[in-house]
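Re: [ENG-882] Designed sequences occasionally contain unexpected residues at chain ends

Forwarding the minimal case from QA. Structure tokens:
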């Protein structure tokens, strides 16, 4: 800036996205990582400590759901999440939230098939990596060149749900990323990681 002139301050006109991270463990750590993106505002909650209500969820644009230990109220949580999607919200389920035991979400979310993948058995017995990008231009895959789940890749042996759209798969053809249209909206994403 020239002497005597104030520097021009530019503010982003990009709206901030509000995320609620619902996770049984590490929800705060995940929130901290996501919050590094300045266009995102995130909060975290452990549903085994405090189950969010629909009113709580409706304060957010989207929910990231994951589990590493069983949900205490998986059916009630699934009912709340289905109501959230029905009200216009979006869900990303990850980290074995689509497991076929109590680690997975239940209730209406599962019963009425909001998941983009079918619930499957949890495994972590081998290294798995990104295989084929089915829809390489999909925004979820932007800047994704590779993915390595590590020596014990935690994932579900899932299959694509009816009406699910496969975005990318593992090297052994198990779904890695899928989305599902609910009420005509792409609002349910499964990250099988």
């Amino acid at each position: 800036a020239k002497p005597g002139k104030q520097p021009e301050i530019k503010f982003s006109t990009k709206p901030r996205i509000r995320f609620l991270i619902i996770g049984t463990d590490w929800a705060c750590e995940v929130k901290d990582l996501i919050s590094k993106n300045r266009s995102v505002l995130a909060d975290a909650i452990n549903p085994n400590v405090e189950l969010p209500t629909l009113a709580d969820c409706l304060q957010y644009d989207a929910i990231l759901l994951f589990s590493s230990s069983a949900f205490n109220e998986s059916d009630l949580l699934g009912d709340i999440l289905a109501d959230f999607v029905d009200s216009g919200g979006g869900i990303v389920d990850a980290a074995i939230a689509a497991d076929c035991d109590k680690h997975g979400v239940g209730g209406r979310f599962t019963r009425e098939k909001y998941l983009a993948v079918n619930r499957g058995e949890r495994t972590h017995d081998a290294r798995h990596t990104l295989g084929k990008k089915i829809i390489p231009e999909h925004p979820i895959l932007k800047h994704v060149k590779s993915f390595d789940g590590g020596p014990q890749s935690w994932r579900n042996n899932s299959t694509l749900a009816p009406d699910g759209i496969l975005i990318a798969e593992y090297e052994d053809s198990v779904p890695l990323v899928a989305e599902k249209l609910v009420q005509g909206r792409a609002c349910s994403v499964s990250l099988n990681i």
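QA comment: On inspection the terminal residues look reasonable. Residues 74-86 form the longest helix (13 residues). Proposing we downgrade this to a documentation issue.
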